[in-house]
Amino acid sequence: KAITVALVNNKGGVGKTTTAVSLSTELARGGRKVLLVDLDGQGSASRSLGLDREDLYPGVAEAMLEGLSVRKAIKPSYIPKLDILAGSMNLVSTDVFLADVEKREFVLRKAIEPAVSDYDYIFLDCPTSFGLLTVNALTSADYSILPVTPDYLGFEGLVNLMDAVEKTKDGIGEAAELLGILITMADYRVRVTREIGDMIRERFGRMVFNTEIRTNVRLREAPSYGKSIFDYDIRSHGAEAYSRLAKEVVNRIRQD
Amino acid sequence: KAITVALVNNKGGVGKTTTAVSLSTELARGGRKVLLVDLDGQGSASRSLGLDREDLYPGVAEAMLEGLSVRKAIKPSYIPKLDILAGSMNLVSTDVFLADVEKREFVLRKAIEPAVSDYDYIFLDCPTSFGLLTVNALTSADYSILPVTPDYLGFEGLVNLMDAVEKTKDGIGEAAELLGILITMADYRVRVTREIGDMIRERFGRMVFNTEIRTNVRLREAPSYGKSIFDYDIRSHGAEAYSRLAKEVVNRIRQD
Ligand SMILES: Nc1ncnc2c1ncn2[C@@H]1O[C@H](COP(=O)(O)OP(=O)(O)OP(=O)(O)O)[C@@H](O)[C@H]1O
Ligand SMILES: Nc1ncnc2c1ncn2[C@@H]1O[C@H](COP(=O)(O)OP(=O)(O)OP(=O)(O)O)[C@@H](O)[C@H]1O
Ligand SMILES: [Mg+2]
Ligand SMILES: [Mg+2]
Description:
2 copies of one chain form a homodimer.
Chain A: E1 3-7, H1 16-29, E2 34-38, H2 44-48, H3 60-65, H4 70-73, E3 75-76, E4 82-85, H5 94-98, H6 107-112, E5 121-125, H7 132-140, E6 143-148, H8 152-172, E7 177-183, H9 193-204, H10 217-221, H11 229-232, H12 237-255
Parallel strand pairs in A: 1-5, 1-6, 2-4, 2-5, 6-7
Antiparallel strand pairs in A: 3-4
The structure holds adenosine-5'-triphosphate (2 copies) and magnesium ion (2 copies).
């Protein structure tokens, strides 16, 4: 049965998609069978791996909201052993659709259930909100990873986010375990980076991954070519950092 | 009666908050009375201008969802002539709360109505989603500004976004006019920036602001000090670009 990991943060542009795509591809490159589920209306994860606009349909919205069998919605990516359940604008009204549905927090888990035994890992790229899609991801996942940028709003947002995840756990009775907090887009030319990076490590200790992802132009370029960072520029700092992170993620899961 | 402008894009981290905060403060510095409405659960706009966590309550969520009089929720900022209607985590379940409410798309407009005559400009900083909060912002605003980053996902996202805004207009019968598309976080070390910037200008022509905002470390630092870019570093490229943009925004509104 697959291990499911959700990338969660209701602050935007912090590297959720980049991390979901990079970890999925690195584990698939290592020979594991991986499914990447794109829960974002913009379909960033799907497009970052080269899916065309037409390829986004049917995707996770149709599996969750229209009862389409998930196996009919899953598509292969250009990377062997990595499949994608694509996101699309059909996701944007999920909260309104699910508001009155029974067990609305478990709709995703039920929809992807048939596919879980086909994979070693499943990564859920969450949208930048804390609505029902993110709650569904937390009840479907074994673990969560929280990407955060080392600046004031990033730090503040993290505190809010962890509160909200705790409340979800209490309210619903189950939710993903925190696998780790990932410092992303660290740019040491920015004045507060070191100070706030230290604050995050002091406050959250071992919950913070040793691996830190620095700002790297190649990571910003890769999605425009529909390639993972490993295929776009294997020698970049970005590729090297995400490769290290993949090892750390697997180790943390093993030790659990 | 105030002119209301919404910053909209369901792609995250594209500079919605930075633009809303910078335009609000520049127009207030110029002597106009301005209200900044923070519709984001992370409260980024409010925190960027120095509001403490306790200052976020009551805010726009209480005015929209609990019927609190908006005048009781509006707070002064550290900048004379600029007031803030703060965002908070109480916004995150708005879609579920409003799903069955009559005229759910006009709840914000009704809530801020009493304050509209007190201001010259109102800026609405939207969350990174296309749910009911963003729809409410579009029915409350006279104009929208769409920040977009000059990369492949940014461009693709813009096409999706404009479709969604059009559909909202058709569905509800009214929505903000597009004031302009703003190219933000342009970094000419990134390979695709020039190519995609040109694509955006070719495709959308005069809809694109002449002013472009380049990547600027100072813009990333300023929120951590609770200051606008003009108070944090008036000589920075970021401050100069946003000052030019403010003039262009006012001119476009006058010509309308
Ligand atoms: N031109 C710029 N140059 C460098 N950094 C920038 C620039 N504009 C914004 N930033 C920084 O980038 C990050 C994202 O910007 P911002 O928060 O304004 O985007 P947003 O679209 O509001 O994000 P969200 O999805 O969280 O709402 C912030 O840390 C901000 O300080
Ligand atoms: N370490 C990095 N260095 C430089 N650019 C990065 C890095 N990580 C991500 N990016 C770029 O920053 C932008 C935002 O990253 P990404 O889309 O992964 O964030 P997100 O949290 O998924 O955003 P959203 O709020 O839209 O879901 C993208 O253009 C991406 O290519
Ligand atoms: Mg994303
Ligand atoms: Mg924002």
